[in-house]
Protein 1
Amino acid sequence: MENTNPLAQRRFKLEELKRRGYDPYPHKFDYTHTPSDIRRTYDAATAEELKEQNVLVRTCGRIMALRPHGKAGFMDLFDGEQRVQVYARQDKLGDQGFDLFQLLDLGDIVGAEGTLFRTRTNELTILATQLFHLSKNLLPLPEKWHGLSDVETRFRQRYVDLIVNKEARDVFVKRSRIVQEIRGFLDARGYIEVETPVLQAVAGGALARPFRTHHNALDMDLYLRIALELYLKRLIVGGLPRVYELSRIFRNEGISSQHNPEFTMLEFYQAYSDYRDLMDLTRTMLTKVAEAVTGSLEVTYQEHVLDFRQWQRYTMKEAILHFWPENISRPSEEDLRSLEKLRALLQGFKVSFAQADGRGKLLAALFEAVAEPKLIQPAFIYDYPTEVSPLSKTKPGDPDTVERFELYIAGMEIANAYSELNDPVEQCARFEEQLGARNRGDEEAHEMDEDYIRALSYGMPPTAGEGIGIDRLTMVLTNSRSIRDVILFPLLRPEPETSDIRPPTSDSGLA
RNA sequence: GGGCCGUUAGCUCAGUCGGUAGAGCAUCUGCCUUUUAAGCAGAGGGUCGCUGGUUCGAGUCCAGCACGGCUCACCA
C-alpha cells in the first residue's frame, strides 16, 4: 500500500471492509447511551465507583481523534455535542475486532460496546469489547487544530462547519431556542400560528422588489411573498383576533452582511390594540428571549454590551435632533417640515434622493443617515412619515404622520410595527398614491391589492401588527457580525465545477 | 453594480529581488497495550483558481475571467 493519497486510502479501506464481510452502510445501530449521555451520567464517577458498578455501555458517533499505540489505541467518539474516549486493545477485541480498529479513519462513524473505566490520566473511557463500522468517511475532515476557517467552505458545506466548529453549532442551537421562546410567548397569549401563501399574484405588505416565478398549469406569473402582512390581516377580518406566522420571505435585492434574499420573519397581529401596546409587548418578549437564550440581560455584541433592561424611545424627529452630529449646525423642527431644507440637509450628508421624493421619504432618509448607526442600545423609534407607511394608520390630527415604530438594536432594524390602517377608503387612496410613485419609477412602491381592500370593507377591528427579523435578532443574540453566520445555507453563486466531489463508481482508484 | 483584498498539498498557512515548491496537521511504512495537539524513525503527496500577456525564465509582474470576503449603493 504505497498510495498515500488520503482520498484513495479511504476508498481502499471501504473496499477492504466489504472484502472482510462488513456491511459498508448498515441500516441502524441500537445504543444504550450517546457520548453526551455517558459524559453527563458518569463524568462525576470516580475510578473506584466505575470499577464497582461495572457499567456496560453501547454508544456511537464520529471519530474525531485517533491515537493508535501498536496493539492498542484510543479514539474519541463525538455525537455533535460531546466526546467520549474509547480504548481499543487487541486482547479485549480479539484479532478480528482489532483489525477493524486498524481500518478506521478519522471521521468514520462507528459504534462501540464496553465497560467504563478511568485511565491513568483519569479520563472517562470505554474499554471496548466490540466495535461496529457504521459509515465511512471518504472525504477527510479539516485539520484538528485550526479546524475549518475558510468562509466560503463554511457556507457552502455547512455540514463540515457544523462537525468541526462548535461555535457554528452553538449559533444554530441558539437560533432554534429563540424561535421556540417566541412561539411559546405568543402561544401563551392566545395567539394561533397560521400559514399563508408564499406564491402570490400581488406581492404586497412591504416596499420591496419581489422574485418572479411561473405556474405552468395555470400559465400564470406569480411572485414569492415579500411580507406576511396582508394575508394575516385578512385573518383578523376573518375573526382570528391574534395570529402569527414565523416563516420565510423573499426579496429580490442586494446581498450584504445584513441581507440575504430569503430570510425569516415573524409577523403577529393583535386585534383591539395599537402600536403602543406592541411596544410594551415587544419589550417584554425580547427581554424574555434574550435572557432565555444568553442567560443574561447584558448581551455582548462585538465591541458593545447591549443592556436589555434599558429601552430608549424617540420619535423619528427626536432621534434626528438627538443624534445630530455636533460639528454640523442643528436644524430646527420647522426645518424638518420643509422640502427644501430636507433636501439641503441630506446633501450635507451626501445622501442621494429622487426629485419625486416627498418630505416623508426625505425625513426617513435623514433619520437613517443621522441616527440609525448610533442606535446601539435597544431603542424604539416611533411616529413615521405617512409617505413611507402605506399600510399604517395616521396619528389623530396629523395626516402626515402614522402610528408606527421600529425597534433598533446594534444599529440594525430588528422590528417594524404599526397601528393598522383599517379604513378601506383611505387604504384604497394610499394604494393609489403608491401607484403614482410606481409610475414615477419607484419599483418598490406598493401595488394595488383589490382583494385586500375588499377584506377591509367587511370591517377589520382596530389592530396592531408587527414584524420581527428573526435572522437579525439571532445575530444580536449570538454576537454574529454577518447574517450568513446565522443562516444555515446562505445564498451563494453556484460553485465552479470541481473534481473530487464524486466518489468513483467502481475501482477505488489506487492505480 | 462600484471600490479594496484574497485564492499555493486533503486542512491551516509560509514563499525574500522574477531563478524551477516549503512547514505543521492529515496520509503511507516500521516500532509502540493507559494515550489525549501520544511518541520515535522514514516516505509519498502540487494544473500555485482559470485564460492570456511580458520575460531567457512567472506562485511572484500585467490584463481579463471565476469564486469568496470587506465596503459603498439598494434594502429588513
Protein 2
Amino acid sequence: CSVHFVQQQNSVCSSHPFHPCQTADWICCLSCVFLQDVVVVSGFTVGKSPTAKSDKRHPFNLLLTSDQACIYVNIVTSVTCPPKHTYVKLSDLKAEELVNVYGVVVFFKQPFKSYGTDYCSSLKITDESNQKIVCTIFCREMDDHPKIFQNGDIIRLHRVKAKWFNGSMTLSSNVGFSVVTFDGAVGGAVEPRSSRKFFSFDEHDRRRVEELRSWAVSQDVCSTVSAAVPLSGVQPKVYFDLTCQLLAKAPIDTTCMLLRVWDGTKCPYTQSDVTIDPDTIEGPASFSGTKKSFIANILVFDNHVVCAKQLKIGAFLRIYNLRAVCESVKEPGLLRMDTDHLVFQLNGGTSFGKGIRVLPESSPDVQKLKRFGKDEPSDSEMLEIWSTPPEFLSKKTLFLSVSFCCSRSCSHQIQPMTLSQLKQSQPEGEYHVRAQLRSYQPHRLHQSLKLFCSNCSSMQEIPNEEVLSGIFSAAFQDSTPCRHPPWILSGHKSMDLTNVMNPSTFITHSHTHTHISSLPATFAGFSLEETCMLAAHYENIVPLTSSGGDLDLLDLSAPFLFRGKKRYYGSESETFNINNFIMNLGIQLLQYVLLMRLKLQDSTDTLDVFLWKDAEKFFGVSAEDVSATEEAQERVQKVMDLLCPPEDSQDQRPWLDLCLMAYAVEDEPGQSQTCYQIINTTIITPSTTQSGPD
DNA sequence: GTTTAGGGTTGG
C-alpha cells in the first residue's frame, strides 16, 4: 500500500499521483477504469485459479482477501495523456491515405453477402466539416461489422483507406480495420458497441462522441435522416423504419414470410387478412379482439427471408425501409382496385438500407418500447396487453409456458398485475404477478438451506463440517467411564430404546434389532467421520458424551440425531434434562427450510421477493432431502437454471405465473416494511411434465 | 495484405 507514484517509462504521466481505492469502494473504482488506464493492484493474494482448465485463462488469480487490499487507478491518465489515435476530419481526406475517422451515420445498410469471401456493409457518415462520405466495409464475420441501429449513431473507424471513386472521396476498410459504434442520443450513456474484447476507449473518445452528438443535434442531422414511424403514424405508400416486437411468424412460400409484430400503438388503417396454414405458424395462430387491432402483418421477401427464419418469437426488431401498401383486389371484369386494407412489405434487395436487425434488450429503443404501457396509464387495456409477454397470448403458447414453467395451486382467481402496480397497491394480501427471474441469492444453493425453530421462530445457519468435527472431538476428550443411567439399563420401552453403547458415546436405536453391549465396553469416542460411518449401519444414532460421570447430549449446535445421511438438529427446550430427553427427547426439533431471495422483473419494474414458506412446494422437494440427497440438490439447481439460465446459454428466461403474499414486517416499533413471499406456486420442469394442455 | 461493392425502391 505504499505505492502512490509509479514510474512509467516513456510516459508523460509518470509523475501523476495514483488515486487510492479501499476495498469497500473497489467496485465503484473499477467502474471508472478505462482501457489503457494504468492500475496498481496491491495487497492481493496470488491463488491458483480453480477454473483455469475450463476457461483456459491464466493459471493464477489475484484474490481480494484482506482489508489491506488496494487498487490504485491512475485516473488522470486519460485526460492528460495525448490521444492514442489521431482522427482526420472528413474534409481532409486524401486519396490512398490510411486514416482513422469519427462520424455521424446518415445512411447504412445491414451487412450483405458479397460475391467475394466477405460480408459487405455500406454506409455514409458526416462530421462538422459537413462532408458526406460513403464507406464500404468488408469483414468475413457478421459480428465485426458496425453495429449501427439507426441514423444518428456515432461511429469510429480505424484503419480505413481514402479512395477516389466516381468523382468523390470514399472510405474502405483496410488491413487491421476496426469499428466501434455508439448511440447518438445527447445525454445518453457513451457505451461502445464492438465485437472485440479489447479495444481502445478513453476520455478522448468519450468527449469526441459527445461533441458529435451535440453537433448532430444542432444541425438537425437526425431529423432529416430518421425514418422511424410508429404503427399509429403509418400512411399508405410510405417507406419507414419500424421498431417492434415479433409475436408470430409463418412461411408463405419460398420467397416470402409473414411476420406478426406490434409496437404498442394502433395503426389507424384496417389490416388486410393474410391467410396462412395454422400448422406452419410459430407463435400464436390468432389474436382476439383488442389484441388483434394492435398487430401488424409484415410480408418479408427474397433475401430477407433467410434473416427472418432466424428470428425468435418475442425478439425486439428494427425493420428498415418497410413499406405500407394498400391491398389491391381484382374483381372479374373490373380494373384492379386498391382497398383501404393495409399490409406491410419488406421488399427484396438492400437498397435504401432495407433489412431487419435484432435489437439487444439493453438498447434504449427497446427500453422505450417496453415502457410504452407504463407511459400511457390511461389505457388500462393497452397496459394489460403490452405487459403480457407474447408467450401468454394464446392457448397454444399458454400450454408451452405452463408446462415448462409453473403452476399455481391457489384457489383464488385474481387477475395478474404488473410489478409496478403491485408496488403501488395496498400491502397485505395475496396477488398474482407474471414475471421473469432476474437474479437470486444465495447463488451457492447449499447456502439457502437453514434451520428453523418453530417454537421461537428463529432461523440459524447449518454449522459447517469443520465446526461439527470440533464439537465431536471436544466431546470425547473425556473418556473416563461413567455411570449407566437407570434408563439405559431399564431399556425404556416408551422410547423403544434398544441399543446402547457404553460407556459414553452412543445410543443407537433400531426398530428391528436389540444389541445391548454389542460394541466394546470401553472406547475413547467417535469422531464425526466415524459417526457418519456408523450412521450407515444403524437406523438412528444419538451421539452422547460423559459429563462429570453422567451421560449427556453433545453441544446442541451439533446434530442430536443421525438417521442415515440425514442429520437432525435441535434447540434446548426449557425443561431440558437428560431424563426428560429420554421421555420426550427434550429437544425442539429444528426444521430444515430453504430460504432464498429472488429478484423478479417484468416490463414495468423489479421486485425482491422471498421464497421460504412454500419453497418446498416451489421446488417439489423437501428441505430435509436437500440436506441429505444429491437428487434433491440437483432438482433445486435444475429449477434455478431453468428460471435463470446461465449467462453463456442461449436459453431465454421463462415467464412465471406467481402467487405472492405481501406482508408487513416491523423493523423497529412503528417502522414497517412490506415484504413479499412466493406462495402456492410449483415450478414444473420439462422432465416432470406429463400432462397435456389442460 | 487479394477480392468483394461502389446507397437511391418492380412487386409479390
